[in-house]
Protein: TMED1 protein
Amino acid sequence: SVEPTEPGDYRLCFDNSFSTISEKLVFFELIFDSSRDDEEEEEDDDDGDAWMEAAEPEDSLDVKIEDIKESIETMRSRLERSIQMQTLLRAFEARDRNLQESNLGRVNFWSAVNLALLLLVALLQVSLLKSLFQDKRTVRT
Structure:
């Protein structure tokens, strides 16, 4: 969590000094809780107040505009949280898929090596068995 001290652009630096040879997969998420959103809400409130005065008859409404605004704001915050969770789950899924594909490559490689060794051993055994049953005596005439 970082509190910005100055307005403007910021840079993110990911240190790779641990190992520059091995491959890494990095996921990160930026969540902005800035005062800019508050300023936009204040501007919306100014427009909303004028709309409330024009649209709200004094005694005919059972539900107040503030309650509607509050429920909409609650839904908005819950939707933002669900978007964050879905993004996080997508990142986990991508990481796991990358690991599975890497494991699949290794399994395929070592399976091919084992198959080649198995065929080599089978050929050696067949040649050994053939040599055992060959008549090594030469026929003299």
Notes: Confidence is low (pLDDT under 50) at residues 36-40. The first helix runs from residue 35 to 55. The chain is about 65% helix and 0% strand. Residues 77-104 form one domain.
